[in-house]
Amino acid sequence: MAEKSELLASVEYGALRAALGVLRLLPPRWALRATDRLGDVAYLLDRRHRDVALANVARVYGGEKTAPEARALVRRVFRHFLKVGVEFALLPDLIARRGLDGVVDIHGREHVDAALARGTGVLVFTAHLGNWEVVAAAGEPLGMRLHVVGRAMDNPKIDAFLLRERSRWVRSIIPKDGGLPKIVRALRDGDCVAMLLDQHAGRQGMVVDFLGHPASAFRAPAELAARFGFALLPGFGIRVDDSPKYRLDFEPALLPDTEAPREAEVTRLTQAIADVIAKHVRRTPDQWNWLHRRWRAERARPAADATAAAPRTETA
User: What is the pLDDT along the chain (316 residues), one digit of tens a residue?
Assistant: First the structure.
């Protein structure tokens, strides 16, 4: 059985490398536009994710969108995530040839500078919105000593390949499972750590309002900020066109009040993170991961009423 697993891992890895090789031979615009047709096929064939996405859209938008409008949005989401896969193959070479400024328009550099100037670690948070790899690519040029948190792939060969690819831009990849000590160490050393914070956090999470509905959110980033004084810096990379070109938006950092009761502050910051992400999802809904079961019936830790105050933010 182990031998079969090793064979399957090798086949999957070989297929991935072959596909990436072909994509890198095509003009970027052609490669990205080809994903539109592939996305339409995926929309038709992948009933499970299509149904999840349609249910999520109905939950959030209700009567704001007709059934045809909801289906059109979900179809664009399928196209988008195939583009993200293609972009992973193209981005390193594109940035090497054009320079970062030729691929990414960065807005809010002053918020990055202000967060770094505090002299504490900075936890950069983003979402499965647009292309989150753009945030990593911009980290070092913006003065961040950046580490990213990620989940290990089931295929060890693909996982090792992705680690090598991502290591072009960041100091290290910290595993999501069991990586908390490394995250704390990096932040206390004054480095930056990037995390994706828009997915379901399960029973250990905290209930927040996300896009108008209760959802379980990760509380660890807010706990670290409240305990150690780390800044929470929002950053989102949105595709502007298929050349490809992106807009990377940084917002003022969310800052902890270290004099406030710890649990109340954790709740306030966790809700503030959800609010920032929700705002950006509403701005560009066709580039967010509606395919994920974000709202579930699992019981998470309720939020405290004492944290309804607006979040403190860094000012330039």
Answer: 444 477 777 777 677 677 777 777 778 888 888 889 889 999 999 999 999 999 999 999 998 999 999 999 999 999 999 999 888 878 888 898 999 999 999 999 999 999 999 998 999 999 999 999 999 999 999 999 999 998 766 677 777 777 777 777 888 889 888 889 999 999 999 999 999 999 999 999 999 999 999 999 999 999 999 999 999 999 999 999 998 999 999 999 999 998 899 999 999 999 999 999 999 999 999 999 999 999 996 556 666 543 344 444 443 3
Half-sphere exposure of 70 (CA within 13 A, CB side): 20
Amino acid at 47: R
| Residue 219, domain member (yes or no) | yes
Whole-prediction pTM: 0.89
Total domains, the chain: 1
Residue 136 lies in a domain: yes
Residue 230 structure tokens? 């780390």
* Whole-number Å distance between alpha carbons of 18 and 110: 41
- Among residues 200, 104, 192, the alpha carbon closest in space to that of 144 is found at 192
The answer for 130, left when phi > 0, alpha when psi is -120 to 50, beta otherwise, is left
Q: Is 200 exposed, middle or buried, given 0-12, 13-18 or 19+ CB atoms closer than 10 A? A: middle
Flag whether 126 is in a domain. Answer: yes
Write out the residue range of the structural domain in which residue 143 sits: 2-307
312 lies in some domain: no
| 58-71 as b/e: b if 16+ CB within 10 A | eebbeeebeeeebb
Backbone torsions φ then ψ of 194, nearest 5 degrees = -105, 135
Q: How many CA atoms lie within 13 A of 228 on its CB side?
A: 22
